[in-house]
Amino acid sequence: MASKDPTAYHDYIEAMSNEQRQQWIRDMVRRLVIALQLKDRKTLSLSLGLHPNTVSNWSQKGTIPWETVYNCHQATGRSLDWLITGKEPAAPTQQNEEKMERDFETDLTEFIATAQNMEIVKNNDQAGSSLLNGIMAIFRNTQTKNKP
After folding, report:
1. What is the CATH number of the domain that holds 29?
2. According to the model, what pLDDT value does residue 33 have?
3. Is residue 1 part of a domain?
4. 50: left (phi > 0), else alpha (psi -120 to 50), else beta?
């Protein structure tokens, strides 16, 4: 669900009652405080250059400025999913990693073929072909070393 587009979370938010939304904002504020390594809501307000009551008002209104959440994500590297929902994104599975490896190898093979077809690297160009084949060999060697 992670997206810098706030509309990606629309259904998640719209399914909440007013009380749930207020609690959700309080929880999100708590995660912002944690992510930014601050003491409390008041220090969050002050660090954002806001009046100390502003963050409390977010909870009462059941809204929070998207820019605040997104900027916290950008500044801290914490995932938007965690900031918004409290759930960490799923760790990559072995199957996903293998698919990414296959996709990368396919892309690399296509890149080499395209470079040769466009005559960026000529089939008889020893240096260019060696470079591209070396990249492929490094990729395969890295994949072999990373296998358990």
Report:
1. 1.10.260.40
2. 93
3. no
4. beta
